[in-house]
Amino acid sequence: MLPTEVLATYVVDSEFDALPIDVVIEAKRALLNYLGCALGGSIESALSIAITTLAPFSGKPTACVLGRSERFDALHAALLNGIGSHVHEYDDTTPKNYVHPSVPVASALFAYASANLVSGKDFVHAFILGFEVESRIADSVYPAHYEAGWHITSTAGVFGAAAAIGRLLKLDKRQMVWAFGLAATQSAGIREMFGSMAKSFQPGRAAQNGYTAALLAQADFTAGEKALEGPRGFAEVTTGVFDASKITSGLGTDFSLRVNAYKPYACGLVVHPTIDGCSRLHTQYQPDPATITAVRLRVTPLVLDLCNQRELKRALQSKYSIYHAAAIGLVRGKGGLQEFTQAAVDDPALTRIRALTTAIPDSSITADQVHIEVDLVSGKTLTLFVEQSLGNLLNPLSDVQIEDKFRDQAVLALPPAVVEQLIQICWSIDTMVDVGTLCRVTAPHEAGIN
Amino acid sequence: MLPTEVLATYVVDSEFDALPIDVVIEAKRALLNYLGCALGGSIESALSIAITTLAPFSGKPTACVLGRSERFDALHAALLNGIGSHVHEYDDTTPKNYVHPSVPVASALFAYASANLVSGKDFVHAFILGFEVESRIADSVYPAHYEAGWHITSTAGVFGAAAAIGRLLKLDKRQMVWAFGLAATQSAGIREMFGSMAKSFQPGRAAQNGYTAALLAQADFTAGEKALEGPRGFAEVTTGVFDASKITSGLGTDFSLRVNAYKPYACGLVVHPTIDGCSRLHTQYQPDPATITAVRLRVTPLVLDLCNQRELKRALQSKYSIYHAAAIGLVRGKGGLQEFTQAAVDDPALTRIRALTTAIPDSSITADQVHIEVDLVSGKTLTLFVEQSLGNLLNPLSDVQIEDKFRDQAVLALPPAVVEQLIQICWSIDTMVDVGTLCRVTAPHEAGIN
Question: pLDDT grade, residue A339 (50/70/90)?
Fold first, then answer.
């Protein structure tokens, strides 16, 4: 069988009881982390603009947008969930391929589950399958695909959403192959949009498009059968490189959820070591920011490729600035949502530190690391080498840290009691009779399970 | 100014009265040809499946799908117009870049005009601008982009739809730049899907996505400002090659509508010379198909890259078969819609000729040409060299031939009197007060202007 068919067969035939228990547990950590991001992003202007603009085009309001009281059709809800959950750049990442894997899959699934009866077991199963499909497709073209400038979260994510929704729709193998073809047809998203609202639109559209692909395939809307490996298929056209073994090897035994990481900071992953290290210096030495005269960073080269923005016109751009990362760590000792607002961008103390920070690429530094030197007016220099940044696979967030991260974001949208209730629901999502209940609890005007 | 901004400025500032009259006339030929294709495709199963599947997700039914009585929101109507008008592969082509330019732009525009009051003058103006934008963007990356396997009609078409709708929405320059960014974000479609329903879905989605891009930009949903030329922008990411002069040179004086061609045959353009030549042999010699023992073709190499399908499982695949092209020309002397149905695929006479036809690539043969040899059981060989295939730029369809092509398709959906009425309306579309009137006339149950 060709890789596309192998993957389709796996998704169609997979059985929940054959899933390793640690993978199910990690899925619940990912879903709690995802849901926190969706609630934290639910009040952002990118989402509000999209809601206002697209409301006249929504079908019957059968589905929830997480953290919002408005109702939409399920396809629009998938898009809007994706915008809200990705807008803060706070969602999860598999460092092996730089995919933010949960957003495209979970955004579609929560939209679906809010409009259709889905058990927690089926929901978690579909999530694991969608996560695995997008991860394997990303692996098969990484790193060339990402380096070419594709936003791999959306280009691979559309397949994950198609797989997850296709599984819930009970597609047969032939239809699942078509769903992957229709996903490939819609696979899009470029890194040029980073630092604008269009960035979070991309994984949202991937969720909506994958969902649409599954619906059309269910109705026997045909597509080419070699979506991944065909001579004009996804891999060849977008990348020119394809490692089919990454699709097929260890399928059913190796799971990408085991190498998923949760961000402690609300911004691009590659600046995390800098925030981590600068925050440690802040905590240890408590330097008065006014006494800092220079900050010198040695960073992995990708940092300057992605995050070399010093002039910040929009708040979103601050998430892609290595200079801002150093500033918030040294001045505030943290990198939560409040460190990437317009107020933070305009903060004179942060502006001053950004201006006196320099970063040079060093290929001996890994993506988990940074070397920091901070000169003080006293003539003293603070030095730190970060070996393993907080939140990466060797230094992961604990369940309690994920809960705390959830609280920090969710309280922006919901009363504390509902926030605590949602944490408890999430940890037992796999036992729910109807996941739609959870979705409805996230609506601000509905304070309890209804 | 960078190319993206140059193009946005042009679209925002263009004045109808500065358009050359021949370009306006050619726009009307293109629109009549487009509308015929939309009506001919309006009863196809690809469209019917999409309508049935997506109806539950449609917003308020304010917009028409051409040739159908159902109503949808305008974004869905754009998608569905695109599927219907492209499904027969009978729409127009600019041979310089293999784009089918009218479908993405006109599908969005007719959807918009059926739900919003638009004058014929504004409509034609927006069509010309959208056509020009997608053509120039395609030119800037052609041929590498197409050769890589992109379905250039949809990847470039999304920009055309964004420009056309953006113009009608009166976007300012900054918003138009964002609309192009949001179009780039959604630019997708691969040639692996050729020969399946997913093919016509691609330009339909481009129409819908471009329309969406314009709506979001109007609401100040931000995007990156270097959609085309940025280091991670459309050209670099999809192609790695970008000729910026194709975007900017002759803007406002050179128009791609002047090099638009209308297909006389309902299939991929590259097999047209073969249908044309074989039809001429059919007319001239009237050979009994049973007496044909071998058909040898020498074709431009791209033909075998695109149309080397001999085993035809689906009717749509017949549009990509050089062997089927030879068969319908020799046996039936034409290549209308009826030559690409399942009945045609299963026709024993056509099946027999397909099996005994061979084609070899010859780089001395252009895309307008073919060399044909037909062996007869008598020992005689019929030979023909086609220098300029019917319908190409040096041998274009006349207005009367475009009208005849319109009639052949439109009668599948509408009574003859309405068909004639639509032809008259189309030729004076630039004087209409409300183009929505035209859209509503195409609905089967509405027999006159309402």
Answer: very high
Average pLDDT of the segment spanning A348-357 = 97
Interface contact flag, A149 B314, Cβ < 8 Å: no
pLDDT exceeds cutoff 90 at A332: yes
Residue B428, number of CB atoms within 10 A of its CB: 10
Kindly state the greatest CA–CA separation across chain B: 73
* Least CB–CB distance from B222: residue in A76, A230, A314: A314
Which ipTM value was assigned to this complex? 0.90
Nearest CB neighbour to B149, from listed A75, A201, A236: A236
Which residues of chain B register pLDDT less than 50?
Answer: 447-450
Q: Of A249, A379, A268, whose CA–CA distance to A317 is shortest? A: A268
Task: Indicate the domain borders of chain B.
Answer: 3-262+398-441, 269-386
Q: Tell me if residue A292 falls in helix, strand or coil.
A: strand
Alpha-carbon distance of A97 to B191, in angstroms, equals 26
Mean pLDDT (chain A, rounded): 95
pLDDT of residue A446: 53
Structure confidence at residue A316 (pLDDT) = 84
**Residue B364 phi, psi dihedral angles, 5° rounding:** -85, -10
* Helix, strand, coil share of chain A (percent; to 5): 60, 10, 35
In chain B, residues with a C-beta closer than 8 Å to the C-beta of A220 are 49
* B223·A196 Cβ contact <8 A: yes
> CATH classification of B3-262+398-441 is 1.10.4100.10, yes or no?
yes
Residue B313 makes CB contacts below 8 A (sequence gap 6+) with: none
Given A58, A75, A224, which is nearest B198 (Cβ)? A224
Q: Which CATH number fits domain A3-262+397-441: 3.30.420.40, 1.20.1250.10, 3.30.2310.20, 1.10.4100.10?
A: 1.10.4100.10
> DSSP character for A308?
B
Put simply, the answer to whether A194 touches B57 (Cβ < 8 Å) is no
Strands (E) in A135-256, as ranges, are none
pLDDT the model gives residue A449: 39
Kind and range of the H or E run holding A240:
none
Structural tokens at position B180: 């192009």
β-pairing verdict for B370-376 and B292-299: antiparallel
| CATH 3.10.450.50 correct for B269-386 | no
Whether residue A216 and residue B202 make contact (CB cut-off 8 A), yes or no, is: no
What pLDDT score was predicted for residue B277? 97
Q: Which chain B residues touch A141 with a CB distance below 8 Å?
A: none
Amino acid letter, residue A177: V
> Cα(B450)–Cα(B437) distance, rounded to whole angstroms?
7
Residues facing residue A373 across a β-bridge: A296, A383
Nearest to A125 by CA among A260, A207, A38, A13: A13
Q: Which residues contact B327 (CB under 8 A, 6 or more apart)?
A: B278, B349, B350, B351, B352, B353, B354, B357
Taking an 8 Å cut-off on Cβ atoms, the answer to whether B192 and A182 are in contact is no
Nearest Cα neighbor of B386 from B270, B259, B266, B287 is B270
Given a cut of 70, whether residue A104 has pLDDT beyond it is yes
Whole-prediction pTM: 0.91
Q: What is the pLDDT of residues A127-146, one digit of tens each?
A: 999 999 999 999 999 999 99
State the Cα–Cα distance between residues A425 and A397, nearest whole angstrom: 20
Burial classification of residue A355, based on how many CB atoms lie within 10 Å of its CB (0-12 exposed, 13-18 middle, 19 or more buried): exposed
Tens of pLDDT, residue by residue over A73-90, are: 999 999 999 999 999 989
Helices (H), A319-414: 322-332, 342-346, 348-355, 399-410
